[in-house]
């Protein structure tokens, strides 16, 4: 910073797109995170509230799937559906019936805080993030 005053004569680049570096679930060990305590750590729903994000009712969904079968038929089997973990506020989830069968990919777009992580991390590049109607977004009031 001091030597070049923020003007480096080159740009550092990654060799691969972020989504290309995700490894299959069977090659990784499962991480068991502790439950949020409500003092230092919080659940994902509380985190949505803290962003001040507001969406109008009946707004068109701004998170679209190119292929609605891909999350269950490919990314769930291959990667244990990473969207349910990389999304910081739990927009994506896998719901199952009472017998823990018949998985269904659910998008809770009303919780989206417009971070675009899904656009960057989705291994199949199946999720398209478009600008939401109405210009809503995070309003971090206490920052």
Question: What can you see in these coordinates?
Answer:
The chain has helices spanning 44-51, 70-79, 83-86, 117-121, and strands at 63-65, 92-95, 104-107, 127-129. The protein has 143 residues and is an alpha+beta fold. It has a domain at 44-135: Alpha-Beta Plaits (2-Layer Sandwich), CATH 3.30.70.20. The strands form 2 sheets. Strands 1-4 form a two-stranded antiparallel sheet. A hairpin with an 8-residue loop joins strand 2 and strand 3 (104-107). It is globular. The two termini are 25 Å apart. The mean pLDDT is 87. This is electron-transferring-flavoprotein dehydrogenase. Its EC number is 1.5.5.1. Keywords: 4Fe-4S, Electron transport, FAD, Flavoprotein, Iron, Iron-sulfur, Metal-binding, Oxidoreductase, Transport, Ubiquinone. Its cofactor is FAD; [4Fe-4S] cluster. It catalyses: a ubiquinone + reduced [electron-transfer flavoprotein] = a ubiquinol + oxidized [electron-transfer flavoprotein] + H(+).
Q: How are the SSEs ordered, and which strands pair?
A:
Elements: H1 44-51, E1 63-65, H2 70-79, H3 83-86, E2 92-95, E3 104-107, H4 117-121, E4 127-129
Antiparallel strand pairs: 1-4, 2-3
Protein name: electron-transferring-flavoprotein dehydrogenase
GO molecular function: 4 iron, 4 sulfur cluster binding; electron-transferring-flavoprotein dehydrogenase activity; metal ion binding
Cofactor: FAD; [4Fe-4S] cluster
User: Unreliable segments (pLDDT under 50, ≥5 consecutive)?
Assistant: none
Radius of gyration: 18 Å
Give the class-level CATH name of the domain at 44-135: Alpha Beta
Helix content: 10-25%
Major sheet: arrangement of strands: 1-4
> Could you tell me the number of beta strands?
4
- From the coordinates shown, what is the CATH architecture of the domain at 44-135? 2-Layer Sandwich
Count of runs of 4 or more consecutive helical residues: 4
Q: What fraction strand?
A: 5-15%
Residue-averaged pLDDT, rounded? 87
Q: What's the CATH topology name of the domain at 44-135?
A: Alpha-Beta Plaits
Assign the structural class, choosing from mainly alpha, mainly beta, alpha/beta, alpha+beta, or little secondary structure: alpha+beta
The end-to-end span amounts to 25 Å
Overall outline: globular
Q: What composes the largest sheet?
A: 2 strands, antiparallel
């Amino acid at each position: 910073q001091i030597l070049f005053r923020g003007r480096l004569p080159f740009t550092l680049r990654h060799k691969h797109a972020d989504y290309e570096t995700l490894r299959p679930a069977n090659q990784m060990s499962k991480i068991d995170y502790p439950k949020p305590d409500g003092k230092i750590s919080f659940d994902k729903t509380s985190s949505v509230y803290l962003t001040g994000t507001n969406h109008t009712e009946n707004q068109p969904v701004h998170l679209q799937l190119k292929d609605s079968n891909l999350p269950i038929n490919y990314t769930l089997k291959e990667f244990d559906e990473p969207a349910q973990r990389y999304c910081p506020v739990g927009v994506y989830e896998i719901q199952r019936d009472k017998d823990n069968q018949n998985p269904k990919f659910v998008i809770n777009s009303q919780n989206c805080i417009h971070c675009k992580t899904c656009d960057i991390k989705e291994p199949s590049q199946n999720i398209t993030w478009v600008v939401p109607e109405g210009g809503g977004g995070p309003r971090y009031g206490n920052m």
